[in-house]
Specification:
Strand order of the largest sheet: 2-1-5-4-3
CATH topology of the largest domain: Beta-Lactamase
Radius of gyration: 57 Å
Structural class: alpha+beta
Bound molecules: adenosine-5'-diphosphate
Number of helices: 11
Shape: rod-shaped
Largest sheet: 5 strands, antiparallel
CATH superfamily of the largest domain: PAS domain
Number of strands: 12
Strand content: 15-25%
Number of domains: 3
Order of helices and strands: HHEEHEEEHHHHEHEEHEEHHEE
Distance between the termini: 73 Å
Length: about 475
């Protein structure tokens, strides 16, 4: 059963019980009050009739010392008509509680009569043929006689009012329940709206619609739940996107790897086939063998690079505090003898946190790439300087530069901006991928600034001891 229906049913049940009880209590309270008032009135009327009887008895001619039964009947008959057209219902009984006079229609029973005595006024509510009466009884002292006077007062109206009250209340309760059901249905649906929206979002996400979010319609606990659900969905979507990107990168890697293998292998197989199937002159034989050798070397270099990347990924690096000087000495020794280009080294002293050999590999790769992108005689600047958050190594060239849209891709494995140019320089698009892996180990990354046709500045930052610590 739906939660909103449960909520609706519970509320309606509570409403029905509350209305039922309060209605019953209220109608009964009004009835009791009216009945009490009628009882008091009936008792008062009875007392007044008693006085009237005693007064009338005093007026009976003096020749009778004792009030005779016939005089009693006469007075009682007069009191019964009361001089009005409407008759009173009265009954008079003697000392032995024998009935002397009873109006037409007075009840036969003498339960009340038996309970009535000189000290108590009595009453009872009785029902006769669908009508209700208050029967009262008092003692009357008239000329040494003790008589019992009973009256009957019709209170059917009070009972009719009670029945009417119940019937009105039943109708009001029914109406309130119908109205309450309609209103509560609306309220239950409004209250459970966040749950419905959440359910819809969960279902949509289960069918793969990961960017679907539940709409937050309130600020209460359910609103908070929606908010938390959406946060969870964001995290989930982020992870899924990351996984998808990783999967795609892996597929791209395999595709690029296969492609990079295919080119040198095709050449090697082609030239090898030529050598074994035809008799070539010495020069052509040498060229073919040389081609096979250089392409083989390229494959070897590529496999070493790939191995480097895989090893770096799994490496448990031991970092040391290394003086920045040591890198610059190493680079000067390595590139100082290359007179094809003009190298300029400039650095500030510092102690950087690094795995020395790995960082040397990065720097050699960056300077190598800068050289490949530059014309002979061009200037390559290698700088090292302190920054607020560490020590920056920067390699600037004035070569071809990198197109803006390619700058983010050049660290991907096998990515080459100009494939034929890169291959002609023994490149396989793996150098920067290796650098990126090494820098990841150092919690750093390559930062690329490049203007096509003007040159590039490729740099990275390593953690360094502050000047005060030095
Ligand atoms: P490669 O082995 O081809 O040098 P890299 O991963 O080192 O592979 O570099 C990827 C590609 O990025 C290169 O093929 C080149 O097109 C481009 N590149 C890298 N450094 C520079 C640079 N300083 N100037 C221009 N292009 C560069």
């Amino acid at each position: 059963m739906k939660f909103s229906i449960k909520l609706l049913l519970c509320t309606i049940m509570i409403l029905a019980i509350a209305l039922g009880f309060s209605g019953y209590y209220f109608v009964n309270f009004v009835f009791e009050t009216s009945l009490n008032r009628e009882v008091n009135q009936a008792l008062d009327e009875n007392s007044i009739l008693g006085f009237a009887f005693e007064t009338a008895a005093l007026n009976v001619p003096a020749k009778y010392d004792v009030l005779s039964n016939s005089s009693i009947e006469q007075i009682a008959a007069t009191l019964a008509t009361g001089g009005h057209s409407t008759r009173r219902l009265i009954r008079l009984s003697d000392e032995q509680k024998e009935v002397l006079f009873a109006s037409d229609g007075f009840v036969d029973g003498n339960d009340l009569l038996l309970k009535t005595n000189e000290s108590t006024k009595t009453y009872q509510v009785i029902e006769r043929e669908g009508s209700y009466y208050i029967q009262t009884g008092v003692t009357v002292n008239a000329l040494d006689r003790i008589l019992y006077l009973e009256t009957m007062k019709d209170v059917s109206e009070v009972f009719r009012e009670r029945a009417l009250g119940f019937s009105v209340y039943r109708r009001v309760t029914l109406l309130m329940l119908v109205l309450g059901t309609l209103i509560m249905n609306f309220i239950a649906s409004w209250l459970t709206k966040p749950i419905r929206l959440l359910t819809r979002a969960t279902r949509r996400m289960a069918t793969g619609d990961y960017d679907y979010r539940a709409r937050q319609v309130s600020n209460d606990e359910l609103g908070q739940l929606t908010n938390d659900f959406n946060k969870m969905a964001n995290a989930l979507e982020e992870n899924i996107n990351k996984l998808e990107a990783e999967l795609k990168a892996r597929e791209d890697f395999v595709a690029a790897f296969a492609h990079e293998l295919k080119t040198p292998l095709t050449s090697i197989i082609g030239y090898a086939d030529m050598l074994r199937s035809r008799k070539l002159n010495e020069e052509k034989s040498f060229l073919s063998a040389n081609y096979i050798y250089t392409e083989g070397k390229r494959l070897e270099a590529m496999s070493f690079r790939l191995l480097d990347i895989i090893v770096t990924k799994r490496l448990e690096t031991e970092f040391q505090m290394v003086p920045a000087d040591s890198f610059f000495h190493y680079l000067r020794d390595m590139f100082g003898t290359d007179d094809r280009l003009l190298y300029q080294f400039q650095h500030e002293p510092a102690m950087v946190r690094a795995e020395s050999n790995l960082i040397k590999t990065v720097l050699v790769n960056l300077i190598d790439n800068a050289g490949k992108a530059s014309e002979p005689g061009s200037l390559i600047e290698i700088n090292g300087y302190r920054e607020e958050d560490g020590y920056r190594f920067a390699v600037r060239d004035h070569g071809v530069g990198i197109p803006y849209e390619e700058q983010a891709k050049i660290t991907q494995a096998f990515y080459m901006v100009d494939k034929s140019r890169a291959r002609s320089k023994n490149g396989a698009g793996l150098g920067l991928a290796l650098c990126a892996e090494i820098l990841l180990l150092h919690d750093s990354k390559l930062e690329i600034e490049s203007t096509p046709g003007e040159g590039s500045l490729i740099s990275f930052v390593l953690w360094a001891e502050s000047m005060e610590e030095l």
